[in-house]
Design a protein that fits this description.
The chain contains five helices and nine strands, in the order βαββαβββββααβα. By secondary structure, the chain is of the alpha+beta class. The strands form three sheets. A five-stranded antiparallel β-sheet has the order 2-3-4-7-8, with helices on both faces. Strands 1-9 form a two-stranded parallel ribbon. A two-stranded antiparallel ribbon has the order 5-6.
Length: 196
């Protein structure tokens, strides 16, 4: 089932999410719905807070980046088919010189800005079967993971921008929070929630 994506301005996006256990109700259905929602919105990652759940869960599928002709063949290969579920993740290392990449977010449609992140990370996480892993990731895969990880920490990519950049996009962000935006996917706006 395709779920509405929570828009910028909703308090759930600013909450630090909580760990979940193996007994989380209807976990398989939740994952299925999240993947369906992400693909429907042409995303490469989706965190649970973006569908209104303040839990430490996100998923990633970087396959769309695998077609980028600006990347080396090796990078394209790594991105193609990289599909993971991250439950209760912890980034335990971030290394290297920060690099800029133009990021966007399904919760903040039509806003894209350069964000600086470190290129190498090590993550401890559980997969969809609650098996534990500790893995290192690099490049664009690391970046997508960092972006989604920020979501479960209550951080948005716009929080990482300079105060000048923030001022320049303030009007756009206000419009998104008021629902004054058109998207190809379902969204839930903070203003709509209050009316119920």
């Amino acid at each position: 089932m395709i779920l509405p994506i929570v828009a910028y301005g909703d308090p759930v996006l600013k909450k630090k999410a909580k760990d979940i256990s193996e007994s989380y109700p209807n976990f398989d259905v939740l994952l299925e719905n999240m993947f369906e929602t992400m693909y429907n919105a042409s995303g490469v990652g989706l965190a649970a807070p973006q569908i209104g759940l303040p839990i430490r869960l996100f998923l990633v599928d970087t396959t769309p980046f695998g077609d980028d002709e600006d990347l080396s063949e090796q990078e394209q290969k790594a991105l193609n088919g990289f599909k993971r579920v991250f439950v209760n993740p912890k980034i335990i290392e971030e290394e290297g010189n920060e690099w800029a990449f133009n990021e966007g977010c399904l919760s903040i449609p039509d806003v894209r800005e350069d964000v600086f992140r470190k290129p190498n990370i090590k993550v401890e996480y559980y997969d969809e079967n609650f098996d534990k892993h500790t893995e290192s990731f690099t490049g664009l895969i690391a970046r997508v993971i960092q972006h989604e990880y920020d979501h479960i920490e209550g951080v948005l990519f716009t929080d990482k921008l300079s105060s000048l950049k923030k001022r320049l996009i303030k009007g756009k962000l206000t419009n998104i929070s008021k629902g004054k935006i058109d998207t190809d996917y379902r969204m839930r706006f903070p203003a709509q929630k209050k009316k119920r």
